[in-house]
């Protein structure tokens, strides 16, 4: 190794330990600890017997660990039923949202017409209002709209799984249109010109050309939508009055007693309720990260 190389090493080490880099690493480590701390504490509480925490307190050294709280929470809250309710709401809502959003995004980004920008603004404007502001009006609308009994046993949009699908699709559609339209604009225009020369129809350009190229973005949005819709608590409480029609997030209330609440069992139930979203992220992790990176690097 030459002297010049040896002299260059300390400078390289100093550059690798710049204050900005050290501060960024400290920030990331601190953010990770802050994010993981509640989850670790919830797991710690869920594995402790209720009698021990009542005697020693939740912030104390555990003497016994058990999975009894998980088994009790599963049976007492009828969790399988509410898991299926969440599945019946989340899966159709995600598929319908992505299908409609991709079609609208293709129109506003790839088909030139006079009102494409206005249409994009219309879809994204709905995300500017908080949901709580629209709640009174939507509650009355849900009580007025009649739907076939095949979609709602009461014949109303209110108090039905179909109504929760509609409200989730409505609120998530604007964001997905905005993201997908910007992603589709990064696809080279020459590809569409070549498809036009080959005589491809609008449907062919959308289905066989655009959607395959948008798979990373669709996977990223599918992960986000699954998390948001599955974890929805507000609309499930406002628009559904029958307990057995509510999703898993609302069903956790069934574990709370009138005077005494078993926090150990609620912590176990909350951890089990979070498993599906974790599974979805693990399955779509590669596509999710690819969608985020591609969307930020294309220009």
Protein described:
The chain is an all-alpha fold and 299 residues long. It has two domains: 3-68, no CATH class; 72-297, MetI-like fold (Orthogonal Bundle). The protein contains 16 helices and no strands. It is globular and about 75 Å long.
Percent of residues in helices: over 70%
Assigned CATH class of the largest domain: Mainly Alpha
CATH topology of the largest domain: MetI-like fold
Spatial gap, N to C terminus: 43 Å
Which regions are unreliable across 5 or more consecutive residues at pLDDT < 50?
none
Radius of gyration equals 25 Å
Which of globular, elongated, flat, extended, rod-shaped describes the shape? globular
Q: What is the percentage of strand-forming residues?
A: under 5%
The CATH homologous superfamily of the largest domain corresponds to MetI-like
Provide mean pLDDT, rounded. Answer: 86
* SS-based class: mainly alpha
Question: How many strand units?
Answer: 0
Number of helices: 16
- The tally of domains stands at 2
Corresponding CATH architecture of the largest domain: Orthogonal Bundle
SSE run: HHHHHHHHHHHHHHHH
How does the major sheet shape up? none
Describe this protein with a few key phrases:
299 residues; mainly alpha; 2 domains; globular; MetI-like fold; 73% helix
Question: Would you spell out the secondary-structure blueprint of this structure?
Answer:
Layout: H1 3-16, H2 19-46, H3 50-56, H4 68-76, H5 79-110, H6 116-125, H7 131-144, H8 161-184, H9 189-197, H10 202-213, H11 215-230, H12 234-238, H13 248-251, H14 263-273, H15 275-283, H16 285-297
């Amino acid at each position: 190794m030459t002297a010049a190389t040896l002299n260059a090493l300390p400078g390289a080490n100093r550059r690798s330990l710049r204050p900005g880099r050290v501060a960024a690493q400290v920030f990331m480590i601190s953010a990770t600890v802050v994010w993981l701390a509640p989850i670790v504490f919830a797991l710690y509480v869920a594995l402790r017997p209720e009698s021990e925490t009542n005697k020693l307190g939740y912030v104390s050294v555990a003497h016994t660990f058990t999975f009894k709280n998980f088994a009790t929470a599963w049976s007492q809250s009828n969790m399988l039923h509410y898991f299926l309710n969440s599945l019946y709401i989340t899966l159709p809502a995600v598929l319908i949202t992505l299908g409609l959003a991709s079609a609208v995004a293709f129109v506003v980004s790839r088909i030139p017409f006079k009102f494409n920008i206005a249409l994009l603004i219309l879809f994204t404007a709905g995300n500017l209002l908080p949901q709580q502001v629209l709640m009174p009006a939507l509650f009355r609308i849900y009580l007025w709209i009649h739907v076939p009994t095949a979609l709602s046993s009461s014949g109303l949009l209110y108090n039905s799984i179909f109504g929760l699908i509609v409200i989730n699709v409505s609120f998530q559609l604007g964001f997905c249109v905005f993201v997908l339209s910007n992603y589709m604009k990064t696809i080279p225009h020459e590809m569409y010109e070549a498809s036009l020369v080959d005589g491809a129809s609008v449907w062919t350009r959308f289905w066989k050309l655009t959607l395959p190229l948008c798979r990373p973005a669709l996977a990223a949005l599918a992960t986000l939508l699954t998390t948001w819709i599955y974890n929805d608590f507000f609309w499930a409480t406002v628009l559904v009055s029958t307990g057995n029609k509510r999703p898993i997030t609302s069903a956790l209330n069934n574990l709370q007693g009138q005077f005494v609440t078993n926090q150990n069992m609620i912590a176990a139930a909350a951890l089990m309720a979070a498993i599906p979203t974790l599974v979805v992220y693990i399955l779509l992790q590669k596509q999710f990260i690819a969608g985020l990176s591609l969307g930020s690097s294309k220009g």
